[in-house]
Amino acid sequence: MDSALQGTRLTAFDSCKPIISIASADMDLNQLEAFLTAQTKKQGGITADQAAVIAKFWKSHRTKIRESLINQSRWDNTLRNVNWRVDLKSQSRHIDQINTPVAIVEMELGKNGKESDFLCLEFDEARVNQMLKKLSEIEESISTLTQTT
């Protein structure tokens, strides 16, 4: 590879490093200002003009950049939508289960830019209660992990 071309690629990549750091930390305006000030004072860092351009770019495109990073970091399908309804069971192997209420839950799963898959589940009252209990446990675990001490 031509060394001039390789040098240009490295320079272009190096100029993206501050934006990658800013986006990864999801910096607010105060953090952004402090970070860019530090970068301008660092030997081999960025110029004040570059800092101004980066700040303007981040302020204008913060949401899009964050969404793009999040979408790129997902490797599996995500839950796009949930629909549900309650029906009465009209057919069953057991006669005593006919006309009992059931929850029908339809989940739309997909990855950005790809076609969705749909998952349809049927829950009786006991299964709905079991699912709610598990979801409460998940919520409690997330709350425990995200609490600030």
From TrEMBL:
The keyword Coiled coil applies. It comes from the Eukaryota. GO terms for cellular component: endosome. Residues 78-146 form the COMM domain. GO terms for biological process: copper ion homeostasis; negative regulation of protein localization to cell surface; negative regulation of sodium ion transmembrane transport; positive regulation of protein ubiquitination; regulation of proteasomal ubiquitin-dependent protein catabolic process. InterPro entries: COMM, COMMD1_N, Murr1. Keywords: Coiled coil. Residues 121-148 form a coiled coil. Pfam families: COMM_domain (PF07258), COMMD1_N (PF17221). Belongs to the COMM domain-containing protein 1 family. PANTHER family: COMM DOMAIN-CONTAINING PROTEIN 1. This is COMM domain-containing protein 1. The gene is COMMD1.
